[in-house]
């Protein structure tokens, strides 16, 4: 640890704050206000994994809408050629190369041919990936290794193949398609999430390296999209499990990614509002984070065949139990309370003040019981809608409703009936 006096530490801290407030912050704000789409007309863009899905749509957008020359690298030559045919048929310029990006020699040879065909490459979009879902002990070693080879090493191989030319010109843009899975690990995501975390780390390291070496003309963009209805996702029978975050269409996802690339953003979330997940990840406590995870209910589990056919969304696996009060009991309780309260209050000198005090007492006691009920529901692993119903009923009707939940919670026969 470098030795530095307390005075210098103080000066350094104040200097940093002044720089952030009056230099870095205003410049970033000004850049954000003035940010616009850069032109890529006539520029060369390399896209990996453009035979289908997001990569295919990106290739079509850049070639047809924005006038770029697109070079496609994909192990699926037939699908890549279809993408090229669509682009050429619409008046764009594109060519494809069959390439396994996990093999360094193949990537380097394709890079050499692309430089000969199109000239210097201006933008690299590392999009190719494979997806395996399963538990830690369910996936094979081969599947795990292939995920690392394609998703991580394939990205690194592609960047290294074109980086030297960019460094010589101090110009270019490197784009990697990570995922929101690169911020949030999830059950059955051991193969996919880990590689998306790694891609995010690779891009952050590369961005810092370019800045420290003075290569500010080379921009790095990391894109973190949410689940999209790509063939890779749908072939695994994955369907939306969250009622709040539906799967995106390929067209919407690709358009937002293209916008982020052309604005040269450092990191972009697609859609933008899922950035709140990453921002809160390191702030929330463990139990609060788990509650948010259950609430959003974003899972990697493929649906069963009958669920796919019915197009149903499984909200929760928890077993729920809720029993409303009989109408007669509710009215009897209210009438009894009113009679008691009226008789009691009429004997008091200050009727209004006593009424308010009594109402406050009833409300406070019911609220405490309702909070207690939430803890019982949590122990029973009830869903959030079920917790809400118990909370509101107990808050309104008090002990007579709480007694039902309490009896159920500590009655083994009732819990067995619910489990069945």
From TrEMBL:
<dbReference type="GO" id="GO:0052650">
    <property type="term" value="F:all-trans-retinol dehydrogenase (NADP+) activity"/>
</dbReference>
<dbReference type="GO" id="GO:0005811">
    <property type="term" value="C:lipid droplet"/>
</dbReference>
<feature type="transmembrane region" description="Helical">
    <location>
        <begin position="12"/>
        <end position="33"/>
    </location>
</feature>
<comment type="function">
    <text>Catalyzes the reduction of all-trans-retinal to all-trans-retinol in the presence of NADPH.</text>
</comment>
<keyword id="KW-0521">NADP</keyword>
<protein>
    <recommendedName>
        <fullName>Short-chain dehydrogenase/reductase 3</fullName>
    </recommendedName>
</protein>
<dbReference type="GO" id="GO:0016020">
    <property type="term" value="C:membrane"/>
</dbReference>
<keyword id="KW-0560">Oxidoreductase</keyword>
<keyword id="KW-0472">Membrane</keyword>
<dbReference type="InterPro" id="IPR002347">
    <property type="entry name" value="SDR_fam"/>
</dbReference>
<feature type="transmembrane region" description="Helical">
    <location>
        <begin position="359"/>
        <end position="376"/>
    </location>
</feature>
<feature type="transmembrane region" description="Helical">
    <location>
        <begin position="388"/>
        <end position="406"/>
    </location>
</feature>
<dbReference type="InterPro" id="IPR036291">
    <property type="entry name" value="NAD(P)-bd_dom_sf"/>
</dbReference>
<keyword id="KW-0443">Lipid metabolism</keyword>
<comment type="similarity">
    <text>Belongs to the short-chain dehydrogenases/reductases (SDR) family.</text>
</comment>
<keyword id="KW-1133">Transmembrane helix</keyword>
<dbReference type="Pfam" id="PF00106">
    <property type="entry name" value="adh_short"/>
</dbReference>
<feature type="transmembrane region" description="Helical">
    <location>
        <begin position="331"/>
        <end position="347"/>
    </location>
</feature>
<keyword id="KW-0812">Transmembrane</keyword>
């Amino acid at each position: 640890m470098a030795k530095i006096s307390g005075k210098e530490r103080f000066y350094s801290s104040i200097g940093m704050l002044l720089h952030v407030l009056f230099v870095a912050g205003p410049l970033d704000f000004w850049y954000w206000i003035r940010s616009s789409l850069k032109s890529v007309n006539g520029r060369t863009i390399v896209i990996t994994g453009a035979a289908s899905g997001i990569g295919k749509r990106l290739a079509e957008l850049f070639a047809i809408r924005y006038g770029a020359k697109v070079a496609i690298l994909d192990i699926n030559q037939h699908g890549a050629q279809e993408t090229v045919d669509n682009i050429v048929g619409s008046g764009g310029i594109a060519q494809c190369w069959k390439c396994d990006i996990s093999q360094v020699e193949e990537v380097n040879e394709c890079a050499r041919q692309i430089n000969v065909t199109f000239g210097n490459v201006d933008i690299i979009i590392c999009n190719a990936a494979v997806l395996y879902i399963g538990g830690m002990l369910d996936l094979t070693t081969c599947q795990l290794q292939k995920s690392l080879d394609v998703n991580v090493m394939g990205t690194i191989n592609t960047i290294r193949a074109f980086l030297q030319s960019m460094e010589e010109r101090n110009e270019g843009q490197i784009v990697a398609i990570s995922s929101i899975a690169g911020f949030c690990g999830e059950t059955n995501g051991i193969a996919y999430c880990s590689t998306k975390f790694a891609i995010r780390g690779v891009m952050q390291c590369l961005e810092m390296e370019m800045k420290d070496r003075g290569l500010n003309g080379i921009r790095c963009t990391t894109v973190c999209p949410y689940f999209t209805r790509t063939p890779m996702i749908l072939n695994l029978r994955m369907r939306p499990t969250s009622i709040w975050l539906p799967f995106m269409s390929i067209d919407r996802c690709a358009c937002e990614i293209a916008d982020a690339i052309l604005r040269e953003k450092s990191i972009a979330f697609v859609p933008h509002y899922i950035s709140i997940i990453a921002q809160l990840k390191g702030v929330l406590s463990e139990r609060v984070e788990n509650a948010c995870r259950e609430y959003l209910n974003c899972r990697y589990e493929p649906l069963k065949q009958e669920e796919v056919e019915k197009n149903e969304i499984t909200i929760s696996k928890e077993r729920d139990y809720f029993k409303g009060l009989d109408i007669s009991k509710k009215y009897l309780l209210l009438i009894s309370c009113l009679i008691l309260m009226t008789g009691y209050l009429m004997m008091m000198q200050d009727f209004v003040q006593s009424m308010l005090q009594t109402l406050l007492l009833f409300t406070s006691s019911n609220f405490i019981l309702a909070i207690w009920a939430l803890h019982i529901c949590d122990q029973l692993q009830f869903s959030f809608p079920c917790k809400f119903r118990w909370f509101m009923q107990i808050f309104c009707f008090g002990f007579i409703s709480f007694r039902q939940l309490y009896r159920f919670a500590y009655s083994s026969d009732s819990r067995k009936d619910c489990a069945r």
